[in-house]
Amino acid sequence: MGHEGEAGDMGVHEGATVLVVEDEPSIADVLAIALRYHRFEVMTAGTVRGALTLAERTRPDAALLDVMLPDGDGRALGRELRERQPDLALVFLTARDAPAEIVGALGFGDDYITKPFNIDEVVARITAVLRRTRPADVLPQRPPLRYGDLELDETTYSVHRAGRSVELTPTEYALLRFLVRNEGRIVPKEQLLRHVWQYEHSAESTVVETYISYLRRKLDALGAPVITTRRGVGYGLA
Q1: What pTM was computed for the model?
Q2: How far apart are the first and last CA of the chain?
Q3: What positions are modified (4-aspartylphosphate) (predicted)?
C-alpha cells in the first residue's frame, strides 16, 4: 500500500498541508487520522506558540483552529497566521455557537465548524475551502524546508545537502520530509508507517528500517550522519 496512483486521486488538495491546532489530544488525533486518510499532509499543534512555529517553518495551505487554546485565542492566532500568509485558508472549530462569535470568526476566516462535529463534514469543509482558495492548476510556491545543511525544495521535490544534489525516490523524499518537519523529536515507527506508507497495524513491517538505511546511505555520503535511531521507539534527526 504505497504511493502509486495517489497523484490522480488527490484532486484539488494534491499535496495540500493542513495545520490542525487543537489542545485535546483525542480530538487532534481523530482529525489528523481522517485528514491523512484523505491524502492531506497534516501537522498538529496544541498551543498558539507551537502553531506559529510550525506555520513559520512549513507554510501550510489551510489551518483548522480551535477557538479556545490553553495559551491564547484561536481567532487571534488565525489573524496572525493570515497576516503572515494572506492566502492561508482558515477554518475554525468552536464548541460555542453564539452568532456574534461566528460572525467575528468569519470576518477574516473562511468557514467554521461547531463541536461536536461529524468528521466527514470537517474533511468536506476543508476540501471546499481549498477549492476556493487554492485552484487545482496552480502549483503552490513554498519556502524550502531546512535542517542543518539539508534543504528540501517543496515545489520541485528536490533535496540538497551542503549545496550538492541528493537523488531521492518519492518515498525516500516523503520519509525525509516527515523527519525534517518533526525535527527535535523521535518519530515512532508506527507513525512513519501511517504517514508515509498509509500502513495501519503493521509494526512488524521492516519497510521503515529499509528506507532509513537507503536515506542514510545517500545522505551520509555527503556529510556527518543526520538520522538517529532510538531503539524500540523510532527515528529522528541528529
Answers
A1: 0.56
A2: 29
A3: 66
